[in-house]
Amino acid sequence: MALEKTDSAEEIPLSSVSLHVTCRIRRLASRDQARQRLLHIGFAPTAQVTPIRRSPAGDPTAYSVSGAVVALRKEQADEIIVTVNPQRSDTGLSSDDDILTHLSPHSNPTFFCPMKPYLFNKPTNCTRTRIPCSLPLIMGSRSKLNPKYTVALAGNPNTGKSALFNALTGLNQHTGNWPGKTVAVAEGLSMHNGTLFRLIDLPGTYSLLASSKEEEVARDVICFGNPDVTVVVTDATCLKRNLNLVMEVLEITSKAVVALNLVDEAYRKKISIDIRGLSSSLGVPVIPTVARQGWGLEKLMDTVQAVADGHHRQNPFYPTYHEDVEKVVSLIEPWIEKTIHGNPYLPPARWIALRLLDGDPGLIEELFKRFQKASSEGGMSA
Ligand SMILES: Nc1nc2c(ncn2[C@@H]2O[C@H](COP(=O)(O)OP(=O)(O)OP(=O)(O)O)[C@@H](O)[C@H]2O)c(=O)[nH]1
Ligand SMILES: [Mg+2]
Hints:
The chain is α/β, with parallel strands linked by helices and 382 residues long.
C-alpha cells in the first residue's frame, strides 16, 4: 500500500511506511527490554529510518537507520512510531550531530575529519616486536610470558575489532571457548615499546544488557574481567549507534580508549567528525584508525599504554538520569559500596545500583554469582 501522507506531523507505525519513504522516529511504544534493544540497534527517537527491502513473504523488512541496515519483524516495527518527512531523503548516513550536541551542549556542532585519504595507505613506523608464534596462549592460564597489561577490544558487530586484533597480534594468537560458554574468543600478545600486552578480541555487542551468549561473554569481560584498558572500537560511518556502548563502558571504567575505526570509509562518504571535540565530550582519548591498513595503530597503542600506566588524565562522561532514578540510586549505592568493598572484579557501586533498577534478569543473576564468589573468597564485607 503506497503511503501518501502530506501531513508530516501524523504519527504512524513504522510497519505501515512504504519502501524508500524516509521517516523520523518520534517514540517507541514498546517497553523494558524490547525498547532497550530497539534503542541499542539504532532505532532511537529523532533518528531517520527508510524501509529499503521487504522479504518475499512480506516480513521481515530491512531498514536503513543510523548508517546501518537492520531487519525488523512486523511486530517490532509496529512499536516504532514515526512521522513521514516528505522533504528529506535518507542518505544512509547518521545525524551524529544530534548525539554529539547532546553530549556537549557547548561544543561546536560542525565536524571535521583532519585526515587525507592518501595517509591511510602510508606504511606506519612500527615499533611493535614480533613474538615467537609458538606461544601456548590459552586464556592466559598457560602463557609462559607475563603480559603487563590486559586490553579488551569491545565494540558493536562489524566495527573492525578482529581486523585491529589481527594487525596488533599477527600470528601470536589463540582462539578458545570462553569458560562455561560455547563462545569462541581470541586472545593474543602484542609487544609495544618494550611492554607486553595481552589482547582479547570480544564478540560484537550493541549493549552491556546482553541478549545472546556472545554478548554475555563481551559483557562479562568488560564488567567483571577488570581489563587494564577497554578499547571500544567504533565505526566512524555510523558513530551515533556506536556511542551507546561507549557510554555504557564509560559508566564502568575510566580506563577506556575509543578507536574511531573505518575513517577511510567515513572520508569516502564525506562524513566529517570533530575528533578533538568528541574526545573532550567523552572525556577519554579518541584515536582514528583504519584497522584493515594498520593505520593509526601506533598512536592507538601509545595511548593505550599511557592510559594503562596512568599517565593520561581521564575524565569520562557520566550520564545522569531522571531525578527519581538518581534518588533511588543514592539510597542503595552506599549499601552496595559497603558490600563490594572495592573488589576490583566487580563494577562500581553506582553501576550495579543502576543495573538492579534496570532489572535485566541475566545480569542480576551474573552479579549475584560474582557477589557470592567474591564473598566466599573473603573479598567482601558482610
Ligand atoms: N574500509 C575499512 N574496512 C575495515 C576496517 N576495519 C575493518 N574493516 C573491514 O570490516 C569488516 C569487518 O571487520 P571485522 O574485523 O571482522 O569486524 P569485527 O568487529 O571483528 O566483527 P564481529 O566480530 O562480527 O563483531 C571486514 O571486512 C574488515 O576487513 C577499516 O578501518 N576500513
Ligand atoms: Mg570479530
